[in-house]
Specification:
This protein is mainly alpha-helical. The chain has 2 domains: 25 residues, no CATH class; 39 residues, no CATH class. The chain contains 3 helices and no strands. It is extended.
Length: 69
């Protein structure tokens, strides 16, 4: 098995494990649209946010959440 095949096999195994233990495949199964503002504000206020190598805003974070739903 070459590196690419090994990577694909690992990704498939992690996805299967997630499904086997009931982890949702995406946010739309666990996040409602009305939660996005609170989650975005919380992420922006997190102590780790200033260490992010890219400046962001609450609006950009909300757009990211919505794109994953």
């Amino acid at each position: 098995m070459n590196d690419e095949e090994a990577a694909k096999a690992t990704i498939a195994a992690v996805k299967k494990l997630g499904a086997d233990v009931g982890i949702p495949a995406d946010l739309k199964e666990i996040v409602k649209d009305e939660d996005v503002q609170f989650l975005s504000e919380s992420a922006f206020a997190d102590a780790c946010c200033p260490g992010n190598p890219r400046d962001t805003s609450v609006e950009e974070i909300a757009a990211l959440y919505r794109s994953l739903m």
